[in-house]
Design a protein that fits this description.
The protein has about 700 residues and is an alpha+beta fold. About 25% of the residues lie in helices and about 15% in strands. The protein has 4 domains: about 1-35, no CATH class; about 65-380, Catalase core domain (Catalase HpII,  Chain A, domain 1, Beta Barrel); about 445-530, Catalase, four-helical domain (Hemocyanin, N-terminal domain), CATH 1.20.1370; about 540-680, Class I glutamine amidotransferase (GATase) domain (Rossmann fold). The protein has helices at about 55-65, 160-170, 185-190, 195-205, 250-260, 265-275, 290-295, 330-335, 355-370, 450-455, 460-475, 480-490, 495-505, 555-565, 610-620, 620-635, 645-650, 670-680, 685-690, 695-700; strands spanning about 5-10, 15-20, 80-85, 105-115, 130-140, 140-150, 220, 225, 235-240, 280-290, 315-325, 345-350, 545-550, 570-575, 580, 590, 595, 605-610, 640, 660-665. The strands form 4 sheets. Strands 3, 4, 5, 6, 7, 8, 9, 10, 11 and 12 form a 10-stranded antiparallel β-sheet that branches. A 6-stranded parallel β-sheet has the order 17-14-13-18-19-20, sandwiched between helices. The structure holds CIS-heme D hydroxychlorin gamma-spirolactone 17R, 18S.
């Protein structure tokens, strides 16, 4: 029914009652009883006390009081979407799992992206690992890959997880800082945990501040196992590679995005799906056998190590698209329960001590969060491609209750039975050894791959790692923690250690940390580890912010819009007023953002299409100057019409600062070439000229 047709009535106190027309839109209690008045509780006398007898009031408040469930202890802030996986190449030589052998089959899936440290209401662009948890609803049951956007982890043994998480989250006495690791407790723990050094390189890199969920890789992290019909095992690592390439933002940009749009990542994915451009990922595997594992430099069971793609290439076997919103955030994103133990026949575990610990933790945590062992009955957690039949029963909120007399097995009545032919069989690993609390010596090298990651980065990416370390350690109050960290960096890369020491103002370089195993410096760089080397060289899927004013040249705006659309990118019009701007052809162009709500950090590149009057007006506006100055400082491509130069100048960009990343939009062809350049995503050369810390970086690097 349309709002205008709703019959309304005023109560004696002037309150508005919207009246139902028939049973189809009559408000009811949870018991189905029709409600006559939802504006006033039952009271004795017009200004008298409220009466307990009012069951509708009590039920409504009671339910509201219990709306919250505990947030996840980690990965509380998440965003879920539905998608579909299609297999293109069979792994029948390695596994019996149908999802990995039936080419062309489509498997429904649900993905939940998340940050780790922040609470549910924190901001999206924290410096953090991103969760990339995937649930495949296969024909043989649910298979979860509870993945991250970083292929290694902080610790080698699950027993350290509570310590690591406590140290990263808010400090217990004060309850802050929120969603950030830039504080003493985190770095204290890290400085005493050398095994985390490889992960530290990743989280100090721009991987931890992705531009979008759409431009992130995903990694299963652990070595898992594929199992064939004869019970033979093959090690496997899972990879998700975004078809649109990798991209991250700058740290200064992330700080500002969090202020202007704390929901930046979720809004980006929501909009991409709404616009009909759902993101896609290739699904890949690294397959290897015991011989490889035996001769590999590191232990394949150690989750602080990668297997470089140059050594074991990622074989792409399928792809998935994430193309549907949830109907209800709570029902799906909040109630989804991922468990690493959810595997299907043909897929198994290894002895990675993190994975073994996770297999306990995820099941356990669901009981705390969802309150009942029947969390598997919640629709988002139910298998879809196969029946569920067993004799488990009862418990809180049992929704799936068996009929009939039999609730045990074996029985003489009939009902589900074991099936040796299709049932799940664990990999029959030969194990022996002494029972002891030990760490294998094969886990002892903590620095070599950290160094390999660092030298695999482009120079600007190395600078960002240094910048991030300086930022984070500058927030530590204890000087000894800063020094200890620099001591670790000396085992990774001497130039990085020196740059960070300079940035922190340390008067002398601390001694290198004692290393359990001598760090190697012979591991070759791996191109797969750099974001920039795996960027798209195209503006597709990215967003242009077009700042316009009254009197701006309509032809240029139209050319920009046409070029953006041709590339498969999107744009947003930003104007002094949200009502829009009247262009020089007399047409009114509606704006998506008023300049104050549309800072340039929300865009991958910006265009300034202003009339002389518009530029003069905006040149005296602080927000408009920030729009340009930030785009410049964040090394973005900036297209501008000549009339916009006064604003550029007032934003602090003088004639001597103009560089090839600033492109004049004189006509349709210059618009095209501007957007071609935007495909590089950033004009990185500029960053070395606009950042004070660049000098220390350049000096130490040379
Ligand atoms: Fe998790 N982790 N984790 N983790 N993790 C959880 O499970 C845990 C680890 C990851 O969107 C919790 O349902 C232990 C690695 C993701 O719902 C909890 C250890 C990786 C998500 C838990 C690890 C992850 C979680 C909290 C060390 C990358 C979000 C709420 C052994 C491969 C899932 C929950 C979602 C969530 C435990 C380490 C990824 C407490 C004990 C390594 C993506 O069970």
């Amino acid at each position: 029914m349309s709002a205008s047709k709703i019959k309304t009535e005023r109560g004696e106190g002037g309150e508005l009652h919207q009246l139902a027309s028939d049973a189809s839109d009559t408000l009811t209690t949870q018991q189905g009883v029709a409600v006559a008045d939802d504006q006033n509780s039952l009271r004795l006398g017009e200004r008298g006390p409220t009466l307990l007898e009012d069951f509708h009031f009590r039920e409504k408040i009671f339910h509201f009081d219990h709306e919250r469930i505990p947030e996840r202890v980690v990965h509380a802030r998440g965003f879920g979407v539905h998608g579909r996986f299609v297999l293109k190449e069979s792994l029948a030589d390695y596994t019996t799992a149908k999802i990995l052998t039936e080419v062309g089959e489509e498997t429904p899936m649900f993905v939940r992206f998340s940050t780790v440290a922040g609470n549910k209401g924190s901001f999206d662009l924290a410096r953090d690992v991103r969760g990339f948890a995937v649930k495949f609803y296969t024909k043989e049951g649910n298979w979860d890959i509870v993945a991250n956007n970083i292929p290694v982890f902080f610790i080698q043994d699950a027993i350290k997880f509570p310590d690591m998480v406590h140290a990263a989250k808010q400090e217990p006495d004060r309850g802050f800082p929120q969603a950030q690791t830039a504080h003493d407790n985190f770095w204290d723990f890290i400085s005493l945990t050398p095994e985390s050094m490889h992960m530290i390189m990743w989280i100090m890199s721009d991987r931890a501040i992705p531009r979008s969920f759409r431009f992130m890789e995903g990694f299963g992290v652990h070595s898992f196992r594929l199992i064939d019909a004869k019970g033979k095992g093959t090690y496997v690592k899972f990879h998700f590679k975004p078809k649109m390439g990798l991209q991250s933002v700058l740290w200064n940009e992330a700080l500002k995005i969090n202020g202007s749009d704390p929901d930046f990542h979720r809004r980006d994915l929501w909009d991409a799906i709404d616009l009909g451009s759902p993101p896609e990922w290739d699904f890949g595997v690294q397959l290897f056998d015991d011989d490889f594992a035996d001769q590999f430099e590191f232990d394949v069971l150690d989750a602080t190590k990668i297997i470089p793609e140059e050594q074991v290439p990622v074989k792409i076997i399928g792809s998935f698209v994430l193309d549907a919103h949830v109907d209800n955030f709570f029902a799906e994103t909040e109630q989804v329960a991922f468990c690493t133990q959810n595997v299907v026949p043909g897929i198994g575990f290894t002895n990675d001590p993190l994975l073994q610990g996770r297999n306990f933790s995820y099941l356990d945590t669901q009981l705390k969060r969802l309150g009942s062992p029947n969390f598997t009955h919640i629709p988002i957690n139910q298998p879809r491609g196969c029946p569920v039949m067993n004799y488990q029963q009862d418990g809180h909120m049992a929704m799936r209750n068996p009929k009939g007399r039999v609730n045990y097995e074996p029985n003489s009545w009939g009902g589900p039975r074991e099936n040796p032919a299709t049932g799940y069989r664990h990999f029959a690993a030969e194990e022996n050894g002494r029972k002891a609390q030990v760490r294998s010596a094969t886990f002892a090298d903590h620095y070599s791959q950290a160094r390999q990651f660092f030298i695999s980065q482009e120079p600007i990416e190395r600078k960002h790692i240094g910048d991030a370390l300086v930022f984070e350690l500058s927030k530590c109050e204890r000087v000894d923690i800063r020094e200890k960290m620099v001591g670790h960096l000396r085992n990774i890369d001497e130039t990085l250690a020196k740059t960070v020491a300079t940035g922190l103002g340390l008067k002398k370089l601390p001694a290198a940390a004692e290393a359990a195993a001598t760090p190697r410096d012979d591991l070759p760089p791996s191109a797969a580890l750099s974001i920039i080397r795996n960027g798209p060289q195209s503006f597709a899927g990215r967003k242009l912010g077009i700042l316009v004013s009254d009197g701006a040249e309509a032809a240029i705006v139209e050319a920009l819009i046409a070029a953006v659309e041709k590339l498969g990118a999107v744009y947003e019009i930003v104007a002094p007023q949200v009502g829009g701007a009247t262009l020089d052809d007399g047409g009114l162009l509606a704006a998506r953002q008023k300049i104050d709500g549309g800072p340039s950090v929300l865009y991958d590149a910006v265009a300034l299409v202003l009339s002389p009057e518009g530029a003069a007006m905006l040149a005296s506006d602080k927000t408009a100057k920030d729009f340009v100055a930030d785009a410049f400082g964040h090394a973005k491509f900036i297209g501008y019409v000549a009339d916009a130069l006064p604003l550029i100048d007032k934003a602090g960009i003088g004639e001597e600062d103009m560089d090839p990343g600033l492109i004049e939009l004189a006509d349709a062809s210059s618009v095209e070439s501007f957007l071609q350049s935007c495909g590089q995503l950033r004009f990185w050369d500029r960053e070395l000229r606009v950042d004070l810390d660049a000098q220390a970086f350049l000096d130490n690097a040379s």
